[in-house]
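Progress note, project year one: complex with guanosine-5'-monophosphate.
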Amino acid sequence: MTDMDGHLVIISGPSGAGKSTVVRSLLDHCPLPLVLSISATTRPARTSEVDGLDYHFLSEQKFREHREQGHFLECKEVFGRGYWYGTLKQPVTTGREAGNWVILEIDVEGAASVMEQLPDVTTIFLHAGSMEELERRLRARGTDTEESIRRRLDVAREEMSRGGQYKYIVENIDADKAAIDICEILVATEKKPNA
Ligand code: 5GP
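Model obtained:
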């Protein structure tokens, strides 16, 4: 890594906090050279999701091979039901070496693991407002079973309590406004390296 390399940025927040919408708006409107890291997962694709675009959807065996070969910057089993999620090292390194700012949209534990390895990472926690609002958004999404919604709300409660470990907390009432707030944070970070 050199001074010319792009920054690494983590955006976390509970499921239903609107991370994907905010990140899409950020990528569309922020003038920095941002690229989104595509995570690998063993979770089955939702009907609207495209392999290689939303995630790299991998078999358990392929995921395990990557783990055993040390290919992940971080990886973990999310929601305790056997689905793995992880960030592959190689695209992150290649993106940064090309001068891009690589965005990781990952959970709080993955974020903690990256912070330990790379303390200079810029970390942003996206907050949905209240738990009631989060529940409303999860239900409106219409993609989860009742059991899955309950599990996501339990995880969200735990995640909200860990927002303090992030350098910045952004409230997502309106996705475009949250994206503008994040872009302003990143532009300020560019002016003071290692923030
Ligand atoms: P979903 O199944 O709704 O796409 O994502 C579930 C959770 O997994 C989200 O909180 C998301 O941030 C997290 N996640 C997605 N990709 C990764 C990853 O590469 N690493 C980690 N640790 N968490 C991830």
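The chain has a mean pLDDT of 91.
The pocket of guanosine-5'-monophosphate is lined by residues 15, 39, 43, 74, 76, 78, 85-87, 105-107, 109-110 (CB under 6 Å).
No further modelling is planned for this target in the current period.
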